[in-house]
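REVIEWER CHECKLIST
Item 1: Sequence provided? yes
Item 2: Single chain? yes
Item 3: Sequence as submitted:
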Amino acid sequence: MKQKTKITRNKVMLEPADKLRLLPPYLFGAVDKLKREAFLRKQDVIDLCMGNPDIPTADHIIERLYDTIKHHPRTHRYPQAKGMPKFRQTVAGWYRKKTGVDLDPESEVLALIGSKEGIAHICMAYLNPGDVALTTNPCYPVHYNGIILAGGKPYNMPITEKNGYIPVLEDIPVSVAKKAKLMFLNYPNNPTTASLDDTGFFKEVIEFAKCYNIMVCHDYAYSEIVYDGYKPPSFMEVKGSKSVGMEFHSFSKTYNMCGWRVGYCVGGADFLAPLEKIKSYLDYGVFTAIQLSAIKAMTGSQKHVHDTVAEYRRRMIKLADGLRQAGWDVPLPKATMYLWARLPEGFRKMTSLDFAKLLIEKTGIAVAPGSGFGEYGEGYIRMAVVTHFKRFHDAILRVKKFLKEGPKG
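Item 4: Structure as written out by the authors:
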């Protein structure tokens, strides 16, 4: 009699893709663990780590979403992957008003499920395994990690205090520039808060890109979080920008719509087409009701934006002034919702992660270690002013005591 094959039901064990192992350590995960431990200790945590706005979305935007969902059930169906025409037309109108740039809504504007998604997908759309892409270091992590997840090889363009947090294009070896396919830039900058005074650097970038056949991807997410009359230049307002690349934007910071996941990309039609194609295979686009709310955000009253910016500035001044009085020199930026600071005197032999760990353990204050944005961020920390104004008084008192005690305290 033929014996039956015995089936052993063991747990399936698989190794993840190699590219996941190539990703740098997620240091924010370490800070999140420390925050959880602090909560378990019943410690009063002041969270300045993640750039996650605490100010709610404006009522008129929320009301538009509610009305659409309640009274327009057809919007519950699959959306148009590239974005509904009215959304793309509104984005084009916003750019025309802000920068004077004319965009074709049909071919030069693309809706995104947040700019982070678009940046990751542009890497997938253009990079073959082993292809080189240039990115600033430190940087918003997806600029670096998106390259790795697409199978590409990041090449760091260091941005430091010494070079004013602007990459020196002449320092990129010709052999690297000839291989590079993409370049990622971000001004106003996260995490360093650096800003450009004019379009001079963008003009250099365009010439460099034309010389070496590189596509430029500029992240403009903080264009509206600006202070004291500062107006950050858009990459798109520079002559020739459409011939070399694109610009990403988001509703997350400007309109406090982080969780809504809506953004867009604008630029040369030939560059956007592959991004639209890959998105059509991987996602269904932005929920139509959210697109309509985003239109309301752009076309409705901007008072909420101005109030948000004023509140961030109030918080920044309070925190930076208090820390300076405590002996920690923290500069005020022209833009973004962050403070970027070198580790205080007496703590500079520590890594930024060790400093962040010690700070939350001793004070309950969570900050982002600079090394989480790349090795050139080592020696710095980033603080996001995303908690109630009254909390900064407590934060300053705690840091003052912490600095007085020193690293051995």
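Item 5: Key structural point noted by reviewer: The chain has two domains: 20-56+303-405, 59-299.
Item 6: Recommendation: ____
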